[in-house]
């Protein structure tokens, strides 16, 4: 149980939620695990819950407290609210800003600041932790270049310019990605990003990790009442979770890339976990996907200190924290959206 930005996150599995007076009560196997006053809460998000009492649902509906249900793996199931009020206002604001390119740029550039900043500090950590195994001078040069990109991103005024800066940062970061692979280098190498289809073992893992991350971010956005399909940098396209792709930009490197590198460098997966088809497509075996998913779920339980909130949370709650911060910015509670800046 974790309270964050007036949202109560319940991450223990098989918990039943009920009402006692003005308190939410958490129980498992008829044993009370905890209780918390509801009067200061805006939402309750439950992962892998057993159920919620009708009394609790009615209490929350009357007081505009959202009840949000996810699977234990983080897939969004439902969001129960009372009469439509704040949720409608929030989405209308999202749609208005999405239609305004200047307003979209002001939001989107913070996503990219977060992405480039996190890439920069991934490179800096490599120079600190593995100076004898990488080209330190090259890493430092790219790190300085990314710092200059961040300065340009902060003041850019068009989505076209923003995409160009993001692309240049990605090209320079990707040039060093292969050096961050420290083990199994004969079987795991990275020359360039290949998406549809992935053409090597590393790209197959990256594609899978990005898909998992996008789904986690989309669930977090739905949980706070935002429309995951209406973005600011990624424009509308049928069936594309554009806002989730926006928000996950700052987490790609620090969350997904680092996870893939750890799977290789810790030898969790090896060359036998991949299949190359006749057309050159590389896919993971069913057993490899199972190992990957298990490790992904374990990663989500690891604790970090959120750089903006200053609170200890699990990695799995980071997308939810960022979705809450984005919603608060759109509501006018924050002067700007604070990206996740890892160091």
UniProtKB/TrEMBL annotation:
Cofactor section: Mg(2+); Mn(2+)
CDD domains: Cas1_I-C
Source superkingdom: Bacteria
Biological process per Gene Ontology, one example term: defense response to virus
Keywords: Antiviral defense, DNA-binding, Endonuclease, Hydrolase, Magnesium, Manganese, Metal-binding, Nuclease
EC number: 3.1.-.-
Keyword Manganese: yes
Signal peptide annotation: none
GO terms of molecular function: DNA binding; DNA endonuclease activity; hydrolase activity; metal ion binding
Pfam families on file: Cas_Cas1
Enzyme class: hydrolase
Protein family: Belongs to the CRISPR-associated endonuclease Cas1 family.
Subunit structure: Homodimer, forms a heterotetramer with a Cas2 homodimer.
Role, per record: CRISPR (clustered regularly interspaced short palindromic repeat), is an adaptive immune system that provides protection against mobile genetic elements (viruses, transposable elements and conjugative plasmids). CRISPR clusters contain spacers, sequences complementary to antecedent mobile elements, and target invading nucleic acids. CRISPR clusters are transcribed and processed into CRISPR RNA (crRNA). Acts as a dsDNA endonuclease. Involved in the integration of spacer DNA into the CRISPR cassette.
PANTHER family reported for this sequence: CRISPR-ASSOCIATED ENDONUCLEASE CAS1 1
Protein name (database record): CRISPR-associated endonuclease Cas1
Organism: Weizmannia acidilactici
Lineage of origin: Bacteria, Bacillati, Bacillota, Bacilli, Bacillales
